[in-house]
């Protein structure tokens, strides 16, 4: 990559985007928690968070980050901008650890690393997109049979998730909410790319808003963003932020790359080595996602175990009674062990004529 002024601008914007977006997850969740105290939680279908200023601060922060990310694509190539999106995962996880006190197990950290490495590998080996001279060229690609089939499959799967799986498994499995956001996100990115091309060409002097295709892509962006926002709020309010952020990033990146390959036919210009490298990146992502799922609660369990162990250590041991004496005629004396305060000693005085009797010895002389 050449160090040009445009690339520097794109790099700064991409880094700023990651910081803003990663921080927005934390701020929005704090707002969701505060709203849940006074109203119905977002995870239960409530919208009281709309009245919470903290949530709106997080929302504005995310919008600023998305605008910076959008602007970064106008200055720098996607091969530079897209991998930097992984930094938002690190920002979110670190802030969640210190602010929300959501612990992440060491294997969860390894899962995050694998997810980032796999995603970065895919993006770095993805081909550059062809330069578009008109929004009509993007419309032509979007209306080819391959992408139409993909878009229809996405819409069907999202409808199944919303109407069938969300009521049953939305509160139990975060993949339901994240699946909706990620699938719609792939359509959103394709529409954002088209809208970005239209804006860039318009600013260059070729007005693209005279075409209905530009307005169609704009409507798709607005509708899909609102849908993603709704279910992302539910996911953040219900599950661990440190786990949601990397999984959402992985799935979003995966579906976006698939949509881009179908729409822009990126693999037509790649060799076998590049394609195999991308497939290895997918395997790495799946491995990281598996680790995240298996260890997402271990951080909290480790903390609970430490607290429980400390509580046990503070409890004074109960007295342990041992038997002394070897014959049936010898008195049986029970002594207390394990306590700092000696309890009374009971002596069993047995005789052939008297029944067993227990006498209390208050001191050693008796």
Automatic annotation (TrEMBL):
Sequence intervals crossing the membrane: 6-27, 48-68, 74-100, 107-127, 147-167, 174-198, 210-231, 243-263, 275-292
Membrane topology: Multi-pass membrane protein
Localization (cell): Cell membrane; Early endosome; Membrane
UniProt keyword annotations, A-Z: Cell membrane, Endosome, Ion transport, Magnesium, Membrane, Transmembrane, Transmembrane helix, Transport
Any one cellular-component term (Gene Ontology): plasma membrane
Keyword Membrane recorded: yes
SUPFAM superfamilies: Multidrug resistance efflux transporter EmrE (SSF103481)
Superkingdom per UniProt: Eukaryota
Biased composition range(s): Polar residues: 323-366
Region entry Disordered, spans: 320-366
Predominant place of localization: membrane
Record-linked Pfam families: Mg_trans_NIPA (PF05653)
Family designation: Belongs to the NIPA (TC 2.A.7) family.
PANTHER family in alphabetical order: MAGNESIUM TRANSPORTER NIPA1-RELATED, PTHR12570
General function of this protein: Acts as a Mg(2+) transporter. Can also transport other divalent cations such as Fe(2+), Sr(2+), Ba(2+), Mn(2+) and Co(2+) but to a much less extent than Mg(2+).
Name of the protein in its database record: Probable magnesium transporter
């Amino acid at each position: 990559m050449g160090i040009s002024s445009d690339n520097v601008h794109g790099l700064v914007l991409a880094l700023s985007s990651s910081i803003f977006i990663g921080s927005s997850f934390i701020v929005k969740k704090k707002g969701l928690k505060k709203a849940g105290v006074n109203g119905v939680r977002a995870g239960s279908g409530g919208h009281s968070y709309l009245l919470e200023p903290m949530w709106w601060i997080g929302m504005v922060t995310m919008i600023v980050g998305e605008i910076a990310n959008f602007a970064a694509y106008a200055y720098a190539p996607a091969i530079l901008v897209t991998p930097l999106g992984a930094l938002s995962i690190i920002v979110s996880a670190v802030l969640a650890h210190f602010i929300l006190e959501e612990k992440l197990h060491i294997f969860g950290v390894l899962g995050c690393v694998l997810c980032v490495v796999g995603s970065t590998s895919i993006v770095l080996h993805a081909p550059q997109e062809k330069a578009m001279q008109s929004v009509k060229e993007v419309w032509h690609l979007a209306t080819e049979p391959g992408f139409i089939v993909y878009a229809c499959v996405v819409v069907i799967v999202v409808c199944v998730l919303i109407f069938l799986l969300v009521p049953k498994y939305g509160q139990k499995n975060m993949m339901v909410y994240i699946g909706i956001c990620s699938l719609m996100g792939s359509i959103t990115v394709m529409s954002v790319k088209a809208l970005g091309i239209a804006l860039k060409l318009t600013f260059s002097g070729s007005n693209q808003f005279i075409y209905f295709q530009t307005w169609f892509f704009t409507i798709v962006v607005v509708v899909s963003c609102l849908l993603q926002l709704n279910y992302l709020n539910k996911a953040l309010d219900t599950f661990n932020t440190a786990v949601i952020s990397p999984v959402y990033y992985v799935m979003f990146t995966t579906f976006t790359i698939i949509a881009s390959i179908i729409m822009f036919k990126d693999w037509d210009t790649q060799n076998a080595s590049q394609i195999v490298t991308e497939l290895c990146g997918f395997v790495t992502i799946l491995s990281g996602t598996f680790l995240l799922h298996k260890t997402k609660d271990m951080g909290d369990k480790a903390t609970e175990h430490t607290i429980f162990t400390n509580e046990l250590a503070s409890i004074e041991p109960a007295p342990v009674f041992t038997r002394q004496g070897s014959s049936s005629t010898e008195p049986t004396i029970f002594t207390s062990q394990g306590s700092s305060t000696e309890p009374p000693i009971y002596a069993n005085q047995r005789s052939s004529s008297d029944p067993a009797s227990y006498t209390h010895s208050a001191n050693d002389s008796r």
